[in-house]
Amino acid sequence: MSRPAIRVVLADDERMVRTALRAILSAEPGLEVVGEAATGAEAVSVVRELRPDVVLMDVRMPEIDGIRATEQILATLDEPPRVVVVTTFENDSYVYDALRAGAAGFLLKRADADALVQAVRLVARTDSLLFPSAVRSLAAEHARRAARPPAWVSRLTGRESEVLRHMAGGLTNAEIARRMEVGPATVKSHVAAVLAKTGTRDRTQAVIAAYEAGFLNVG
Fold first, then answer.
1. Pairing of strands 6-11, 31-37
2. How far is residue 161 CA from its own chain's centroid?
3. What's this model's pTM, rounded to 2 decimal places?
4. Domains of the chain in sequence order
5. Residue 101 in contact with residue 72, Cβ under 8 Å?
6. Which of 87, 91, 108, 211 has a CA 20 to 30 Å removed from the CA of 14?
7. Ranges of H-type helices in 33-157
8. Is the per-residue pLDDT at 92 higher than 80?
9. Which of 130, 118, 55, 113 is nearest to 85 (CA)?
10. Which residues, at least 6 apart from 76, have a Cβ–Cβ distance to it below 8 Å?
11. Tens-digit pLDDT profile for residues 96-113
C-alpha cells in the first residue's frame, strides 16, 4: 500500500518564486502542492483551512512576517504542519528567530531542486534534524547565550544528554539506537524526556535551546 502524498503549502510574496517551487514539487511523485499564500496572514488562514503536512514559508512577507506566521500556525493547530522557512541569506537573524519559534528547519532560495525535494521529504517523513551543520552555524552567529545554564541542563540524565548531542548531529532515532546500542523505543522515550525538560516542541527547538544554554558548543 502506497503512502499518501505529502501535502505542501507555499507561502511567499513573490509569485515567480511560488510558481517555480510549485513546478519543482509537483513534478515529484508523492508530493502535492495544495495551496499558496502571498502574505503571512494569508499563510495562517490557508494552513488552517487545508491542514498540509509541510509549509514552505518565506521569512519576509507583508502583513505579518514568516516568524509570526509560524508562531500562529504552531500555536493554534492541534496537529500543526512542519514549517520550513525559505530565505535568501543563510545567516539571516530572521531565520534563527523562526527556528526558535518552532520552524523545523530552513532552506536557501538558491537551493537546487534536489535539495528542495529532499528537505520536504525529510521534515515530513523522518525525525532527523534538517541540515544540522547549517543550524549550528546559525547558532554560532545569533544564539542568545544564557548568563548561566538553565535548570534543565542539570536535570538531564546521562543518556538524555547523549541523545540530545546525537539529535544535534542530525541522527534519526534509528541511527541513535544503533549508536547507543539500545532499542528504538528507548531512544523515543529519551527524546520525549529531552523535549519535556527543555520545554520545546521538537528536535530543532531542543537543539537551539541546547546551543543557547551552552550545553552544545557552537565554536
1. parallel
2. 21
3. 0.89
4. 6-129 (3.40.50.2300), 145-213 (1.10.10.10)
5. no
6. 91
7. 40-50, 66-76, 93-101, 113-125, 132-142, 151-155
8. no
9. 55
10. 44, 48
11. 888 998 999 998 888 899
Dist CA 149 CA 206 (whole Å): 14
CA distance 107 to 135: 11
Only one residue has cell 523515543, namely 188
C-alpha cell at 97: 528567530
Query: Which cell numbers hold the place of 166?
Result: 546525537
Other C-beta atoms within 10 Å of 79: how many?
6
- Alpha-carbon distance 154 to 191, whole Å? 16
Its sign, for the CA torsion 65, 72, 143, 125, is negative
The Cβ of residue 209 has, within 10 Å, a number of other Cβ atoms equal to 24
